[in-house]
Every structure is written in C-alpha cells, then in structure tokens.
Amino acid sequence: MSDSASQRDVWERVRARLKAAVGEDVFASWFARLELEELVDDLVHLSAPTRFLCSWVQSNYSDRIVEAFRHDAPEAGRLQVTLRVNGQARPRLAPAPVSAPEPVESAPVAKVAAPVSAAVEPVAAAPVARLVREAQKGDALAGSAIDSRMTFDTFVSGEANEMAFGVAKQIANAAINNTVTFNPVYIHSTVGLGKSHLLNAIAHAVSQADSSKNIVYLTADHFMYHFITAVQRQSALGFKEWLRKVDLLLIDDMQFLQGKSATEFGHTLGALLTGAKQVVVAGDAPPRDLEMLDERVRSRLSGGLVVPISTFDMDLRRAIVQRRADQSTARFGMHFPPAVLDYVARAVTSHGRDLDGAVNRLVAANQLTGELITVPLAEKTLADLIRARDAKRVRIEDILKIVSRHYKVPRNELLSARRSRDVVRPRQIAMYLAKALTSRSLPEIGRRFGGRDHTTVLHSVRKVEQMIKDDLELGQEIELLKRMLEE
Questions:
Q1: Given this model, what pLDDT does residue 97 score?
Q2: Residues facing residue 186 across a β-bridge
C-alpha cells in the first residue's frame, strides 16, 4: 500500500478501532501520540515522541496494533516503533525490535500535572525530602487529566447504577467535609457502564468545593508509567512519598495494573488506609478476579465496599438516549422523534458509549445528508453498530470457568506452572479461545494465564490450530466450547 493518502485513511480507521477496543483512557495514554510513517509489505512502521513509549507499545501492544491493521491491510504482520524527534521519525532499523527503555524525554500524557513530574525528576542523588517538597508543589489535581464533562450532573442514573452513583456522591461529600466514608471503595463493571465517569465526577466535585485538596486521579497505565519512570530515574522513594500524601486517590482501569507496579499499588493502598485516606478504585472484574494482584491486596479491596454496576435495562438506556438527544437538540436545533429514541434504546444494548455513538451518528447523518431523523434513517445509520454488538462479549474469566468445568481441571491449575498432559492441553485450548473470542492481545492473555510470556500464548494458539486440522473430533469439541461461551 504505497499511496500516502490511502495510508492516512487506514491509520485513522485503525486509531478508531484501537480506541473502541481499549477505551479512551488507555488510548490517550499509549496510542494518541503515535503516528504512521509507512506501511510497506508486511511491516507497519509507527513513530512515537519518547523512547519509553516506543518500547512500551512495541512490548505490550504489537499484536493488537497489527491485528487492527489487518482489517484494511491483510498483509500486515510486523510492527516497528521508532523515535520521532522534532517531528521527524528515525529511519527503520534493520532488526525491528526497539531497544530497552531509556529515560524518557517527556511524559506520554500531555496533561499530567506538576506534582508527578516533580516526583520523578531525573536527579539520581536528590534527597527524598527535597523530592517530596517539590512533589507537593503545583495544582491540587494531579495525575491523569480530569474530564470536566464527567460530572454528577451529566451522569444518568437508573436501577443498574444507582447504588454506585449514591456511593460516589457520598464519598465526595465526605471528602469535602474532611471525613472518610467506606474505605476502600471498589466499583466494577464491564466496559462503558460509567466507572470512569463516577471517578471523574468525584474528583471534580471535591476539587470544585475545596481546591486545596490533594486529589490524584490515575489510570492504571499512568500509575505504571510514573512508577517505572521513577525507578529508572532513581526517584522511586519520592514518588511513593508523594502518593502517600494525597487526600483522595482514585485509580481507574485496575485490570491493567501489572508486575512491580501492582506490588507498589498494594503498598500504597496499605499506607493510605492506615492513614485513613480515601481510596476509590475501578476495574472490569470483582477484586477476587484480579489475578495480577497478590492475595493480600485483593483481600484489602474486597474488605472495603465493593459496588457493581450491572448491564443497563431498557429504561436506563432510554434515559441516556433522551439526555444525549436533548443536548444535541440544544446545540444544533434538530428534532429526535420519540419513536427514534425508543428504537435506539431497544437496538443498542451493549453500553453507554455505544448509545452516545448512536446519537452522534444520527446527528452527523442529519447534518451531512439533510434527512430528517427517522426510524428508517436510524436503521440504516446504525446497522453496522448493531451487528457489531450483537455477539456476547466473552471474557477470559468466562473461558477459564467453561474450560475448567468441561475438562474437570481446577481453575488455579490452568494458571499454574504444571506441565502434565491433563493440564497442558486444556490450558492451550483456553489460550486459543481467549485469542479467538476476545480482543485481548497476546501479552495480555499471557498475563491473565499466570504471567506467561506472549510467545507461550502464540505457541499454544498455533498448536491448537494444528490439532483442530488433524483431529476432527477435537475441532467439534472446541466449536461446542465456543457456542457455550457465546450463548
């Protein structure tokens, strides 16, 4: 694919797929500042503004990026990320892999506030006291950027999320009044049901009421980035001390926390709870299913207040669509008939972001074509969105349960290092199903299967693919497992 214009179009579509797959926060952290340099033969050549970002993306997201390219460029098979300096990417290197991480020139998130950068400044021998003093300078809001649109006023509540909404408002009120309510609080749900909105709303409400509060909102990816950078720059103690001096700590996307950063989060959590500081965490699974955390941290989270957000019912979906339509009407003066709102609420059943996207599509269709917003227009405009969301979202946890039950192998043994045949084959099949039925990358699957390397996952996937070709009965058995997971 040599035409630069067509390559730019492909890159925009790839970016949209990645944002839909990983969510806005993760996309902003690791993908937003990537640029496509060229797509030659089977090589995808991207550039990034820092060496750390080059290495992190190459190590953690290669498979996912290549997979996103294959929709438009089936020949894509390799990824190389090179450093971009002063707007120019370095040439492609002979071997594709990027070298090990070096100290970064700038943070991958443009809006991280001063306290974090001060806490990890590149001064190898700086005394901890000085780092802490400098970490305390700057704005009250630190860490990841707070989205000012995500407030309690813009949150639409209903039966599925009213408990989480009430708890979030209670936390904010308590923090404003210098008290601590339930601690820690853990909010969990599948993607797009409002966890990030509530964390942003808490931070926004407290900061608006008392700007002197030291509030830190961090996505798990940002937490890992800052911790790794602090270790590289020999300022980890300052980073830890800075975190432990916060009044309100909010950690989002807990499921992405891995390795030593997960251990450090456990230490930070313990210190904050001992000091009666409020901690709020959000993730896509209950604490007991966060395999990357040790048992002590999972127990700490479970021992607080665990608040689920369930799938939206028809009434809540209708209320969300109505709110978004009212906003569009106020802004653009267009009319959304009740029948259209009912159709969208019935047809788009996945999550809130898709409901937002559906309304945005109708607005765009009206503005671009001049057609009135009607049910036929909605059917035509939203057809691919509805088809794409028809299939059930399969989680790795679902796969582990089904495979464990089908092969009568305890779940913990699927994640263990045992190499006996009665464990290895079900484990390989589970990894194959995870790759086939989820959007998780090979490194992510490896981490969920007991911290295995992505090459182990790839070997398992290829092994099972070959077994399916050679053994018709096994192929039928795996198809049965797929149907069980997709029902």
A1: 37
A2: 281, 306
Is pLDDT at 167 greater than 90 in this prediction?
A: yes
Following DSSP, what letter does each residue of 422-458 receive, concatenated?
HHHHHHHHHHHHHHHHS---HHHHHHHTTS--HHHHH
Average pLDDT over residues 108-131: 30
C-alpha 344/C-alpha 318 separation (Å) is 8
Paired with 217 in beta bridges are 143, 250
Q: What is the residue extent of each domain of the chain?
A: 4-89, 114-308, 314-390, 396-486
Please tell me the distance from the alpha carbon of residue 273 to that of residue 269, in angstroms, as a whole number. Answer: 6
Q: Which of left, alpha, beta for 451 (phi over 0: left; psi -120 to 50: alpha)?
A: left
What is the reported pLDDT for 334?
83
40 HSE (CA, 13 A, CB side)? 6
| Count of Cβ atoms closer than 10 Å to residue 177 Cβ | 10
- CATH fold of the domain at 396-486: Chromosomal Replication Initiator Protein Dnaa; Chain: A; (1.10.1750)
- Give the contacts of 307 (CB within 8 A, at least 6 positions apart): 163, 164, 167, 185, 186, 187, 188
**Residue 262: is its pLDDT beyond 80?**
no
Q: How far apart are CA 280 and CA 20, in angstroms?
A: 25
pLDDT of 461: 92
Question: What is the maximum span of the chain, computed from C-alpha positions, in angstroms?
Answer: 67
Which two three-digit tokens encode residue 437?
A: 């039925």
In sequence order, the β-bridge partners of residue 215 are: 141, 248
Answer for the pair 393, 383: CB distance below 8 angstroms, yes or no.
Answer: no
If residue 143 lies in a helix (H) or strand (E), which one and from where to where?
A: strand 141-143
Task: Dig out the tokens for 466 from the structure.
Answer: 């070959």
Judge: domain 114-308, CATH 3.10.310.10: no
- What is the architecture of the domain spanning 4-89? 2-Layer Sandwich (3.30)
Mean pLDDT of the chain: 77
Q: What is the pLDDT of residue 428?
A: 92
130 or 330: which carries more pLDDT confidence?
330
User: The pTM is what?
Assistant: 0.54
The burial of 370, by beta-carbon neighbours within 10 Å (0-12 exposed, 13-18 middle, 19 or more buried), is given as exposed
Tokens at residue 259, please? 């390795």
| Structure token pair of residue 23 | 């969510």
Average pLDDT over residues 378-401: 75
Fill in the amino acid letter for 192. Answer: G
**pLDDT tens, 464-481?**
999 888 887 788 788 878
Residue 386 pLDDT > 80:
no
Angstrom distance (rounded) from CA 18 to CA 12: 10
**Structure-token match 């029902």, residue found:** 487
Pick the CATH number of 314-390 from 1.20.1250.20, 1.10.8.60, 3.20.20.70, 3.40.50.300: 1.10.8.60
For residue 282, give the amino acid letter: A
Tokens of 265: 């989060």
